[in-house]
Design a protein that fits this description.
With 621 residues, the chain is an alpha/beta fold. It contains 26 helices and 24 strands.
């Protein structure tokens, strides 16, 4: 950084040198001292600005001239009462009024100073040499023959043969001006740093940025908006926004009432999402700024991210629209999925095996704000305890025999920024439940063999086909972990409770992998399938349809084919009540036992001495 002292008087050159020699201004930049009076001083100021000077110091008329012609701040060396007194002393004996000729008003009143010292003083402030000559002549006619003045006015007075005292600046005045200039230079440097930071940020962002002032003139735009709108900064800055982008909507933000803050527009055959924000200074709107996103580009980037995640197997492939919901129960489930997706709390998904709990978990993820992040699923019952621990939490190199060189990230780390799905959570060993609880509480994991903690940002979805409270009562599952996982609960009803969904499910299975000339299924076959118990739920139904497709001659799957296929794998469930179902077991008895057994159908059927199938049919009667 640089400061230039343009000195209109030799005295100021000497005072500046003395001030710099005597005082440490804690200034790492350069301070140059340049002699120059009025026009010569202005020319020196022009040259200093070209060299990159930050602040200029000068005095009197020279300071005024420079300030009116350059764009850098000018600090003026102030004339003090002591400077006037020293000038008075330099002229010796004074009789009558003393005229003080200067091109700037002082910070004090010379006439009052004269009253204090008993010498009448007449202030003569001028704007240029021509006016100065006229006013000096007027003062002389009034009988004033002793004058004080700065360098420019003193030259005129001496040429007329008048008695003149030169008003010089003390070292203290110059030192004070240097201190003020340094502060001003520091402020300008910080402002430039902020401006450069702001410029770098908006230039680096992929979003288009364009701003206008209160006069609707463009003040700022970045390269992204130039590409999007096919405009050039040099041609746009300072122009009215309406002349560049008709119907931009940004001008409306200046009024504050009709601002359309978010919209989607088509410009140059591309689709853009535009967010507009008024710029406020206190209560006043002083401008507006628009953030523009290329929707086509955003979709492309999302596709790239999902492709990369898909290669790693970390993407949720199932969406809410793919869930069959002809039944009232499943319509409620889908609505809950939408509600839960908007939240970031844990969800416990319950339901029998084969009801589609993981598909529901994937749907929640794909509707949430984490949809572009990874979706990681693990079955807690599929791995032995030691392997499950290393998979979930990872390990450091050398943590155990056979540990991978360099260690391995756990699934919680892999799922950072996304969702982890813990299937069959009820099978998780107690020793690991404590570690999972810490992840939920502290949002951090520790690898096996590590000493440091790793912060993770993961949403946890879990699923079970067991009675979790029963596991808690039997001390097989931690109660504190259970309530941490069970913040939001979603129950998926078994297929036998939502038979209205079976036709839609069958159709989706037929479309999923078409076989030969099979184009559909008869109504009789569908009704027959709706009467089955479906212990394996959707998974069992899909398997049956897959087998029948292979054996059917087509074009439709007939009821007889379905009956034969089910008979081959076990007794066919019909809608005729069994002998056991016709016994005296009343519905209220069943409901009471169900409640006592915490809705465990197997234990309820055992206590009542009937089969699960009979129990189910009694409940449907």
């Amino acid at each position: 950084m640089r400061i230039a002292i343009i000195a209109p008087m030799t005295n100021i050159v000497d005072a500046a040198k003395e001030a710099l020699a005597k005082q440490d201004f804690n200034w790492r930049g350069e301070i140059e001292i340049i002699p120059g009076l009025l026009e010569i001083g202005l020319e020196q100021a022009y040259q200093a600005v070209k060299r990159g000077v930050d602040v200029i110091i000068s005095r009197g008329g020279t300071a005024t001239l420079i300030a009116n012609h350059v764009d850098v701040p000018v600090v003026e060396i102030q004339v003090t009462a002591f400077d006037i007194l020293r000038a008075l002393k330099s002229v010796g004996h004074v009789s009558g009024t003393v005229g003080v000729v200067f091109m700037r008003r002082f910070l004090f009143e010379c006439e009052k100073l004269g009253d204090l010292i008993g010498i009448p003083i007449h202030e003569i402030f001028v704007e240029n040499e021509m006016i100065a000559q006229e006013m000096i002549e007027t003062a002389c006619r009034q009988g004033i023959n002793t004058f004080l003045g700065d360098a420019s006015s003193a030259r005129l007075l001496i040429e007329r043969g008048l008695k003149v005292g030169l008003i010089e600046s003390a070292v203290e005045s110059v030192s004070k001006a240097i201190t003020e200039a340094i502060k001003l230079a520091d402020v300008r440097r910080r402002e430039r740093e902020k401006a450069q930071l702001f410029r770098t940020i908006i230039d680096a962002t992929a979003d288009g940025i364009i701003a206008i002032d209160k006069n609707e003139q463009v003040t700022t735009l970045n390269p992204a908006i130039e590409r999007m709108y096919q405009i050039q900064s040099a041609e746009v800055i300072g122009r009215k926004i309406g002349d560049i982008i008709p119907d931009d909507g940004l001008r409306d933000c200046l009024t504050g009432d009709t601002c359309e803050q978010e919209s989607v527009r088509s410009i140059n055959n591309r689709v853009f999402a535009i967010k507009r924000i008024p710029i406020k200074l206190g209560e006043d709107i002083v401008g507006a700024i628009a953030n523009v996103q290329d929707v086509t580009q955003l979709q492309y980037f999302e596709q790239v991210v999902r492709q990369k995640l898909n290669k790693k197997g970390l993407v949720a492939k199932f969406y809410l629209e793919q869930i069959s919901a002809a039944s009232p129960q499943m319509k409620v489930v889908k609505e809950r999925v939408r509600q839960y997706a908007a939240n970031d709390a844990t969800v416990l998904i319950t339901g029998e095996s084969g009801t589609g709990k993981e598909r529901v978990a994937q749907s929640i993820h794909n509707l949430s704000q984490r949809k572009t992040g990874p979706f990681v699923a693990i079955n807690c019952a599929a791995l032995p305890e030691a392997l499950l621990e290393s998979e979930l939490f990872g390990y450091e190199e050398g943590a155990f025999t056979g540990a991978k060189k360099g260690g391995k990230s756990g699934l919680f780390e892999v799922a950072h920024g996304g969702t982890i799905f813990l299937d069959e959570i009820g099978e998780m060993p107690l020793s690991l439940q404590a570690r999972l609880l810490r992840v939920l509480q502290e949002k951090e994991v520790m690898r096996l063999g590590a000493e440091g903690l790793i912060p993770v940002n993961v949403r946890i979805l879990s699923a079970t086909n067991q009675d979790m409270m029963h596991l808690v009562d039997e001390k097989k599952f931690r109660v504190d972990l259970y309530y941490r996982l069970d913040v939001l609960r979603l129950h998926i009803p078994p297929l036998r409770e939502r038979v209205e969904d079976i036709p839609e499910l069958i159709q989706s299975f037929l479309e999923k992998s078409p076989r030969g000339n099979i184009v559909g299924i008869t109504e009789g076959a569908v009704k027959f399938l709706q009467k089955q118990y479906w212990r394996g739920n959707i998974r069992e139904l899909e398997n049956v349809i897959e087998r029948v497709k292979l054996l059917a001659a087509g074009p439709f799957i007939e009821e007889v084919m379905v009956r034969q296929e089910l008979a081959a794998y076990g007794p066919v469930v019909s809608d005729t009540p069994s002998t056991a179902a016709r016994d005296g077991v009343a519905r209220h008895e069943i409901e009471q036992v169900l409640f006592e057994e915490k809705y465990n159908y197997t234990r309820t059927a055992q206590r009542l001495g009937i089969s699960r199938t009979t129990l189910w049919r009694k409940l449907r009667q």
